[in-house]
Amino acid sequence: VQFVESGGGLVQPGGSLRLSCAASGFTFSSYAMSWYHQAPGKERELVATISSAGGSTNYADSVKGRFTISRDNAKNTVYLQMNSLKPEDTAVYYCNARYSGGSYVRDFWGQGTQVTVSS
Q1: CB of 89 within 8 A of CB of 57?
Q2: pLDDT in tens, 9-61
Q3: Dihedral over Cα of 95, 21, 81, 92: its sign
C-alpha cells in the first residue's frame, strides 16, 4: 500500500490550497477516504470523509463551507480543496483509507503533508 500526498505548503490567510492523495496497492474504490489533520501538541482530528463511490460526504464543523472533499476512482486519488484558509487550519494533513464490513475494519494512512497558514 502506498500513498503519495501533495499540495501542501505555505499560504496567507484567506488563500486556497488543493491537497491530493494518490493511492495504490489496494482496491481504492472499495474504501471510504478521509482527510485528517494534526496540529502541534494536539490529537489527530477528522476533517472530511467521502464514501467509496463518492456519493456521500461529511465535514468537521470547523471546515464546513470552506473545504470540499472529492475523489476520482479512475485515478485512485482523493482531493481536499481548501478555501478561505485560517491560521488555525495550520497542521499536518493525512489521507486515510478505511474499509469496514460488519465487525471488520482496515485502515491505511498516508505520510502527511504540511499546511501552514500565515502572513
Answers
A1: no
A2: 999 999 999 999 999 999 999 999 999 999 999 999 999 999 999 999 999 99
A3: positive
Confidence label for 101 from pLDDT (cuts 50, 70 and 90)? confident
Cell of 25: 496497492
80-91 as b/e: b if 16+ CB within 10 A: bebeebeeebbb
